[in-house]
Amino acid sequence: MSMNIDLSSILTKIANDSSFVDGSEGKFSKGETLFISGTSAKGDMVTLKDSSGDSYNVSAQELKGYLTDEELQALMSNSATVQVGSTEATSATSEVSEVGEVEATTEVGETAEVGTTSAAIQDEIDKLEAQRQANLDSMETLKDQIEDLKDEIQDSINAAIQEMEEIEEEQKKKAQEVVDEELRKFQNSNGEMTQDEFNANVQSQLAAINPSMGSVISELLNANTKTALMSNLLGQLDSKVAIDSQLCSQIDAKNTELDTAIAQEEAQKAAEEAQQQAAQTQSNSCDPIGFQMEADSDGDGTVGTVQFDFFYDSDDDGKINSMDDFVGAKADKAGQDGWSEIENLDGVGGEADGVITADELSNAGMKVMVTDENGEQYAMSMDEFEAQYGEIAINSQDVEAGEEGFASGVGPNNFGTDADNKLLSSFNLSVGDQDLTGYQTSDTEDWLVENYSDVMDLDSIAAEGVDVSGVGSGSEAVGAVEGAGSAEAQQYVEFSKQYREEVLPKLEAQIDEAYAELGLSQDAITAYKNIAKAEADVEGQKVADDLKAQEEEKAQQLYEEAQAAKEAEEAAAAEEEAAAEEAAEEDADVSEEDTPNFDDLEVGETVDTTESTSELEDLLDEEEA
Known about the structure:
Residues 125-185 form a coiled coil. By secondary structure, the protein is an alpha+beta fold. It is built from 16 helices and 17 strands.
């Protein structure tokens, strides 16, 4: 079982302990931000890191003044849960706890358990992101409080100096005697007199000497308390910067796990889809028809393989808006040979002579989708095609692939098994002075979506019930944080450094000068600083407790908002998919209603097929046009 250890104050004390900051080799500077980065295998040494990333080894013996034997043993065995600022972290790995009652996440560098889903890992990332944002909000709150303290301390110092101008030198000497006498009583009381009682006794006697005297002591004590509180809050701010770094590291590690989980899930999905594709019917495939040739499509002098696929562009937008736009798809879905869509063009708008020309292709609303030698895809009209590459002529004879003596073309082909497309037939065509072999292939819808998504209207394709969810998969995980730490936290690092190195020392020097001007002994000044430190510790703990409660509430709120947004997005997608399925079912029902059911006719009963026959004739006329 782990032991809970509050390291916030311990690390601050170590950073300000003269035995650790004596300036000798291997010691850090006073006031550094420290956190534990690891322990030795033997359990006799702890490695501390400062805000600059420098490491220092501290022996277990040196830590005994700050930790009990039980706490030290737990820390050395990496079984301690340490409290850093207002957020828990596990020693050695500095693992940050999650929001509210959520269980601890996987440690930095540790991979997710086998079977962990990408959704579960993403949920952990969402929680870490929410906690990180709440931590950043606390940094801003601390920054505002520290800036306010600066003004309040300066006001107290100025008020003390102004009051001191009304005090005579003789009164200052009496004041020093009073304070020293009360301090002697306090020290000899063996704890029976409290610091508050000591201060009250001094205040009442000083007021009898000069009313302004009590005000001066009160203002200086107030300034002392607030400088001590400023130091405390700067320590909390530094701790939260370290927490931000730890959270960023965890988010990075989780995103790596997420990428692995997504890859595994996609591989599993691909295997399942491969099995489904093996059993797919013809209605889930298309028979694209096209050809390839060697050309320099962009005119840069580099010749490469350029692919041309015939497609119907009914919207004249240069995009594939339906799987039926692929030439051969309509015939394929009707259970016919897709080549018939090309063969039937012979004589459209001209003479049926066994050769299909660019004019006949254009009259049918056909274009070519180009995949150039650079992999770029774009549509060309038949006029644009002939202007760039020369006159096109297609032999309309349908001949089975591999029939001897037919394949006289010289173009390359892309009918490998790795593409999951099946060569159904080939045909002769010429482009300019080149004799080529064209192809008709049977491809799955998934393969076509994957290879033509850049020139598809995916919304229209999805509305047909085609799965387009795999397009663009494998992208970089959302919310990934680069590096161990964030740009947002860096501003607080610079702020803390400025206040610790410049602002705070300057204010403390002014207070010391005011005490010296008042004439108090060094023992009396130390006593008042101890009173101020005790009050500041109480107030600092209150600030830490309040921030912790605010962080937990804020992190939970941010997490719930993220989940609500995600659920709304998923619900909208599901609603859209359901609407598409309903529309497809309605279309199927209408088609079924329009078709006479001859199986239900009685002997001698007739049926009027005029309307359906007329619709078929209209469709045929449209096809010819």
